[in-house]
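Fill-in record for Phosphatase.
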Amino acid sequence: MQRRVPRRSFLRFGGAAVATLALPFSLIFSRKTQPRAVGRFGPLARDPAGILDLPAGFTYRILERAGADMDDGYRVPGRPDGMGCFPGPDGTVVLLRNHENGPADRAIGPYKAGQSAPAEAYDAASMGGVTRLVLDAATFARRSSNLVLAGTNRNCAGGPSPWGWLTCEENVDARHGYVFVCPATASRVAPPQRLTGYGRFYHEAAVVDPATRVAYLTEDRTDGCFYRFKPADPAAPFQGKLQALGVVGERGVDTSGWAPGHPREIAWVDIDDPDPKDDTVRKQGRAKGAAVFRRGEGICLSQGAVCFSATTGGPAGAGQIFQVVPEGDGGTIELLAHATDRDALDMPDNITIAPWGELFLVEDGPLGNFVRGLTVDGQVFDFAHNARSLGELAGVCFSPDGRALFLNMQEDGLTLAVTGPFPGVAAGPG
């Protein structure tokens, strides 16, 4: 969709459960108020296998389970989290998948009994990392999998970039707290490519604007900031300045109490020491007036606008969705949505834009977790439900052709492909 919606075009969901504003994203919301509805796909049907409830006409395939053998001799680690999908060679698509493990998680790490960490491991004691899952692009059947990055700590979310998958450490122990880049072509475990300039803090997610090479980064702290890394020259994308977002005229504002709407002018403040010994990056930002966000989580980008979630922000502590529209060294930020009822939205985590322009998000709440959607006509709906456990859903992303949605069931150790009557998808294999 190419037409952009004016920023002042308002939309609110009924019942005061979720309030939102139309996006100048690729989303084209209506101006009228809409009640919560079942959405274009219909109500969820109970899964007889007790794994994932989906609307009628949709099916899932389990691609891999934690503990299974990979093709390189390692095993599939547990706690799959953030994930990205990339086109691959020879009729394949490639999933790069985070694993949110730490040093204490040897039992669910990538190494079998008697195996040692490879020489390429960033930290031999840590069990986090990234795996690569190669699928047939026509049928989404598994072809192979392998370890790509080893020895990192609590790889939570991340995001796509022109160079591959950005994986983020949500931990600042010792040498940790960084973003690493993982090429989608890595068919074996590779030496770590650490992006020190992106900062050392409790990273959650990242996304790069391919036009400017500017990276946007969230921080999973209750008093966290929102950051960008601005290259001095797009031709040298990892040399530049880390900055935190501030709101003009509202020094150090706590954004958790904002109401939807009301675009605010932004300015960026420099982080003087992006790689400190202690966990002080957010404190540096706040000392210069940066805004505070309650646990920044998933992030995505469309048409130059950046959308991200704050999982415990808002009046119910159940989540907010923000939009940043960069304009040179300024731009605007506004709250698009917040939850006032956990039944409608409960702690949004990873988010993505569907190929047809709707926002999909997954939840990490305590009461049962869903894949939710926000439609182009202003409705919130349930697309999937974790029927197996109260565990987190994560890693939501679409295949390049829009025929499959991929996701992880973290505590259950499952990676799934969901296919069915998505908009614009003809019937076929998969």
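KEY FINDING: The helical segments are 281-287.
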